[in-house]
């Protein structure tokens, strides 16, 4: 069976699940039955009306039954900010994913840690995307963009995601990690394997996913050993190897942070590039504005990130009983911040 057929089968299965919201009217169904966690409405681009109803009628919404168990949905900006800035109440540990992962398949990484360890480790990697470093990389980014666009076929159909979004993102990831350029597509595969639903076309099982993660660890351990014995460099592996908060990481924590950085650079950026181009073509008046005034490109970049939210949600777990938006959250409850809202 082809990859496309497998993905289609997985999507159809998701849409036909008893938990699916696909084809349902969010305005007439009982509000307590709304379940944003099921992937069907995201595959079919039907999620916005569900978010709109929750924002208007129940911005801190409890879903008692779902395939991922009971959880709270937070859909308004002020409530999301309250959760996001209160790590003493809402913890990122043990996971920021809506699914409770198996312990044997859970990797420690700083995005799923609370302060101060989160802040200390994040601070090590942050300079790679600081304005000064991005300015240093500007010429090579522009050169690669031009080369990729100039190499596209003319007057024939092609896959923008594959030939532009993935290609550009993968090239830049290899640069940020100082990863062997000829092996750069391994970064894309490891990112996809880490985030894909088993059976959806990338990996068929958690065991297969874990085999990919072990390969990733082996390769990056070799790079660590090279960089730790050299002078500190400006690439991410060197930063981690020499950083005070990261140089003594256990292998699984190192792997977790590598996967986090790969996914953070790959999945989000390529989705923004693809979604941005799609949005411009679906809104030709906005595209015309851009063509007429290149000075608004910086605004366009910010707007694309807002419009095509690279990250739909993030989960927290309540450490204590708390009140949010007039609702009583219990310690241990799963609280999901829907950034896409």
Automatic annotation (TrEMBL):
One of its GO terms (molecular function) is iron ion binding. Transmembrane segments: none annotated. Coiled coil: none annotated. Gene3D superfamilies: Cytochrome P450. Its cofactor is heme. SUPFAM superfamilies: Cytochrome P450 (SSF48264). Belongs to the cytochrome P450 family. This is Cytochrome P450. It comes from OM182 bacterium.
